Structure formats: structure tokens, C-alpha cells
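Worked example 2:
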Amino acid sequence: MAKKDYYKILGVKKDAKADEIKKAYRRLARKFHPDVNPGDKASEDKFKEVQEAYDVLSDDKKRKVFDRFGYYADNLDPDSPFGASAGAAGGAAGFDFSGFSWDPGTSTSSGSSFRDIFSDLFGGSGGAKAQPEPPRPLPKRGRDIEMPLALSFEEAFSGLTTNITVNRSEQCSRCHGAGDTGGPVVQCSSCKGTGQVMRTGGRLQFSQGCPDCEGTGRRRQPCSLCNGKGTTPKTEQVKVRIPAGVDTGSRVRIPKRGHGGRLGAEPGDLFILTNVGKHPFLTRKGDNVYVTVPISVSEAALGARIEVPTVEGKAQLKIPAGTESGQKFRLRERGFPSLRNPSLRGDQFVEVKITLPRVLSEETKELLREFEKLNPENPRKAMGLE
């Protein structure tokens, strides 16, 4: 059996008092708990090791066994000169265990737990096997909340501060998140004492350990205020500030406004998921803004100064003489502010499209024919076409 120094694991001295051991356990359990370190296998293994050490050192009899032998096993008796409890040595009490095939990896013997059989023969309370203790509640960080928020194009550009209604939970004021008030141990109502609950995944049904009693089938009498959940519901108005420059899909974090934690653990966070509406003329790509503006033939040929729409209103744009359809112009720093660096802004790009008059009088047509004579040009010459 691999020996572990439980005192070293908890970081306490061998003469540590019970309250010192409990304090060290709570500190390490909070540090390495899987809910605090999701997906971290090393932290999960360390948490199990800390739990194992505390299970032994917090029990006076188990601790006495560990102090004497340097490890703990159920069949060791610290008061026996031989180390083993009554009947633990082969045949000591007139029983022959040779008929049992015990696999240490599975702790099974002919389909039953060897430890349970041993407890039936020599355990206390008239031979009845000991019931597992209800799980000790641990500090648990509250869950995060995600809420969508619709914004106009202009609100996304300038940012805003608003109040939103959040349905969240907070730590139970009666049990402080423990889920119970230290009452008597009762059968778990969630699994009816079986330690297992049924779950459905697609077309399959499977059982898994009950999360409320952690598979023991027993728990302390639930708190009457939170019904054992450790938290109570709460609806509140939360003031949120949406920074300038958000886009559809941006996540704005409001710390500690998620669901309440348990046993003093901090609450989760509130995340606002923004959905930005469209603008009738402007299109956004990153921090840049794009717009297409029509211009007349004379404006393109002779040049002009025209108005173009921007997210902040109208702006003046100079069209040089001889501008072609599809040509693009840049208005510097007329785009959206950067979320990473609000002092920086994107640009606005204006594409012009030349439009022809829909109705031409005979006089206008004659002027165009005269213009063509004075300015002969074949725009298809580069393609070798007439």
C-alpha cells in the first residue's frame, strides 16, 4: 500500500488541533475544487488527495490508526497489539476467508463488497453495516448568467448606460449556502435513497450518481428556506455600461452579478451579449464603415463637393473632376472606436456610383451628341474592340 503523509498534504503539524485541520482543509478544498478549476486534472487529483487526508485526520479513530501505522485501513485497530481488529487475521475468530476471491482493484467478492461482508460479521450495531456519511458541503462559485441586449447602430457607436432586469440567485441567508442547517440525516428525496438518478440523452436513458447527496443516498435535512439548494431566487435591476464600439456578438462582463455562490464563495459574472441593428445606409466591417453614394454625370465630370452620411451625421466630401463610377474615397477616423483602444477609430470608405438621368429631352440629347463629337473616346479600346 502506497503511504501518504496526510499531515504534509494538509500542511499541518502532527499535533495539530481539530480546528487547525478543518481550517487547512477548507483553504485547500476551495483552492483545488473542480468547480474553481474546470478541466484541470491536476487540481482535481489534488482535491481528491486533500479530501482523503481530511477524511482520515478529522476522525479521531482513523487518525489514531494513521498515527500508529503511518497509513489507514479499515481492518487496523490502534489498540490491538497485533494491529488488526478482531477476526482480521486469518481464522483468528474461527472463520475461514479462503473461499472469498477479493480483487483490490474493484473491492468485490462474489458480487458483494468484501468490506461490507466483513462489517456484517464484525461491525457494530448488531452487525449492521455502517451507512456512509452525507457529503460535506464545499464552497462553490456561482454560475455565470448570459443575457442578450439589442442596440441600435448609433448606440453601438457611442455606447450607453442602462438598467436591465436580471433574474438571479443569491446565497441563502438561513443556511449560508450549505443547503442544510445541521439537522438530522434523512433519506435523499432526489434519488429516494438509491444514490442514483436517471438521465436522458437523446434516445438513451442512463443512471448517474445523485448530485444532491453525491451518491450516498442520504443527506441532512434540507434548509426550509432554500429547499436544500443553498441559494434563493432574486430579481433585481442591474446598471450596465455598454462601451462604445461593441458589435454583434460582443460580450460585456459585469463582475459578480451572476448567480450567488455557496458557503462564502463569490458569485458568478453577468455577461451581456450585444446584438446591433442595421443602418439604412451604412455598413460596418470591423471598426471601418462603408457607404455607397450616387453622383451625377456632371458632378463626376466637373467635380463637386457633396454631402455623405456618417454615423455622426452629415459630412462634406470633395469629388475631383473626372471621377469614375466605383471609385472609393476615405474619410479618416470616421469609423467606430476600437474596443481594445478607445482612443483609436476606424475609417469610413465612400464608394461613388455615377447615375444617368432617367428622362432626356431632345435638347439634352443634342448636347450629348455635340459633347461626343468634341470629346471622341472609345472606352473599349484597351480590349481591342470598336
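Residues 86-130 have pLDDT under 50 and may be disordered. The helical segments are 6-10, 18-32, 41-57, 60-69, 114-122, 153-158, 297-302, 362-374.
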